[in-house]
Amino acid sequence: MDHNFFVYQRRSLAPLLQWGMGSSVVGTILTLLPNDYWRQFGTQAFTWGMIDTLLAFAGRRSALLKAEEFFAGDISEVQERTHAEHFHRILMLNAGLDVIYILAGVALAKRYAESPRRRGLGHGVALQGAFLLLFDAFLARDVEARWL
Questions:
Q1: Which of 20, 53, 103, 105 is the most exposed place for a label (fewest CB within 10 A)?
Q2: Which residue windows are transmembrane per the record (predicted)?
Q3: Using a CB cutoff of 8 Å and minimum separation of 24, what contacts does 1-5 make?
Q4: Could you tell me the pTM of the whole model?
C-alpha cells in the first residue's frame, strides 16, 4: 500500500523510466545498422527514450522530495489531493497528445511509403506514441480510482 500520493507517483513513473532507458539502448543499436529504415526508427527510439528517461527521472525526484515534505508535515492532505488532480490532468492531456503522435507517425509512414527513412521515422513515432498512450491512459485511470 502506498503511504501517500507522492510515494505512489514515484513508483508509478518507474515503467516510463524503464521504457525510456530500453528505448535509448535499442535505438542506439538500431542506428548502427546499414538499413535506412532501421536507422531512422532507431533514431526515434533513442530520442524519445532519452526524453522519457529525463521526464521520468525528474518526476521521480520531484515525487521523492514531495513525499519527504508530506511525511514532515509540510504538505497537507488537501495539498496532496491538489497535486494528484494536477498529475491526473497532465496525464489526460498527454494521452490526447499521444493520439496525435500515433496518427502523425502512421500518416507520415503512409504518405512516404516509398522512403525507408521516412517510414522508419513514422513507425518510430507511432510506436513511441502507442506506448505513451497506454502508459498515460492506464496511469490516469489508476490515479483517478485511487486518489480522486
A1: 103
A2: 12-33, 90-109, 121-140
A3: 2/146, 3/67, 3/71, 4/67, 4/70, 4/71, 4/80, 5/70, 5/80, 5/81, 5/83, 5/84, 5/87, 5/147
A4: 0.95
Quote the domain boundaries for residue 19: 5-147
- Cell numbers at residue 28, please? 542506439
Q: Show the cell assigned to 102.
A: 500515433
